[in-house]
Design goal:
- By secondary structure, this protein is of the alpha/beta class.
- It has two domains: 219 residues, Metallo-beta-lactamase, Chain A (4-Layer Sandwich), CATH 3.60.15.10; 74 residues, Arc Repressor Mutant, subunit A (Orthogonal Bundle), CATH 1.10.10.
- Strands 1-2-3-4-5-6 form a six-stranded mixed sheet, with helices on one face. The chain has a six-stranded mixed sheet with strand order 7-8-9-10-11-12. It has a three-stranded antiparallel sheet with strand order 13-15-14.
- One of its GO terms (molecular function) is hydroxyacylglutathione hydrolase activity.
- InterPro entries: Metallo-B-lactamas, NDM-1-like, RibonucZ/Hydroxyglut_hydro.
- This is Hydroxyacylglutathione hydrolase.
Length: 309
């Protein structure tokens, strides 16, 4: 729990398979922001039920910053246990209704989520009450073009989702030649955050941090590099998505990696469009780069992620 936050706002820091959850406490009107990944639903429910969570109190509403699997994968389980309503960004409805296309989209990344029904939508310009405070919804496109972030102006708290972490942000999709709309949107989101000038940021992943200016400059620099070199961006996407899947799977045999990369559409597309490597060379490059970065560990013919799920 962060000392940077007022007592009615609590961030539950998770890892990289599960996003952080944010609890906004108010008698009879507790709100949860985001719900984590589906395969860790029991861990999420235990956190919510325990002393750092709701500790037996009811939950009225669950609101998503965006509808990627690590942010909405636990929606169904949380709603089932607490009977809370679910609110999603207005722009995300087309991705989750009907559910079949959403499931197919996630399969491209070797991801999944439990299907759920939403009760309400929220859009940029809307406000909601949580923790005795009024929160503003702001557009946060880039990583997810329909994402929102939530700002509380009194204490200048920003719940940023994957639009800004302390030293990075959620990946942006690479594009060949010309202007990349995802990167341009991410730049616009950073400018919007800069204008809000938050005193405290609760990111979708990683620790709560004070101020946003340093983080904004770090992310801008990375986006500039990706804009200049789409292949660098593609390599980044492959590494992030592979580690994410490892966190879900636990481990993978090294000799299975080439076939896995060829089978999962996200990796196959990145290789075909940007890298042009043979399957074994693609796998060798990926594992060597991740081992060098300390992101994975290879032992006994198996590869395992080193970061917290």
């Amino acid at each position: 729990m962060s000392t940077l936050l007022p007592p009615t706002v609590r961030a539950l820091e998770r890892g990289w398979l599960n996003c952080n959850q944010v609890l906004l406490f108010e008698a009879g009107a507790n709100v949860l922001i985001d719900s984590g990944y589906c395969t860790h639903r029991e861990e999420t429910l235990a956190l919510l039920a325990g002393p750092v969570g709701l500790d037996g109190a009811p939950l009225e509403r669950l609101i998503n910053t965006h509808c990627h699997s690590d942010h909405m994968g636990g929606n169904a389980a949380v709603a089932h246990v607490y009977g809370c309503s679910i609110t999603v960004p207005e722009g995300e409805v087309k991705h989750i209704v009907p559910w079949t296309p959403q499931s197919a989209w996630m399969a491209q990344f070797d991801q999944r989520a439990d299907p759920f029904f939403h009760d309400e939508t929220i859009a940029a310009g809307d406000t909601f009450e949580g923790g005795g405070l009024e929160w503003e919804a702001h557009a946060a496109p880039g990583h997810d073009m329909d994402a929102l972030m939530f700002f509380e102006p009194r204490h200048r708290i920003l719940i940023s989702g994957d639009a800004l972490w302390e030293n990075a942000m959620g990946f942006v999709w690479p594009e060949e030649g010309g202007t990349n709309p995802y990167i341009e949107a991410a730049f616009e989101t950073l400018s919007a955050i800069e204008a809000l000038d938050p005193a405290v940021v609760i990111p979708g992943h990683g620790a709560v941090f004070a101020g946003a200016r340093g983080a904004i400059e770090t992310v801008r620099s990375k986006l500039e590099a990706f804009s200049q070199d789409p292949r660098k961006n593609a390599r980044h996407v492959v590494k992030v998505m592979f580690v994410f899947s490892l966190l879900d799977r636990g481990t993978m045999a090294v000799d299975e990696v080439p076939g896995y990369l060829a089978r999962v559409e996200c990796h196959r597309q990145m290789n075909e469009r940007f890298l042009g490597l043979e399957p074994q060379a693609f796998a060798d490059w990926l594992l060597a780069d991740l081992v060098r970065a300390g992101a994975v560990h290879v032992e006994g013919g198996a590869v395992r992620a080193t970061s917290k799920a």
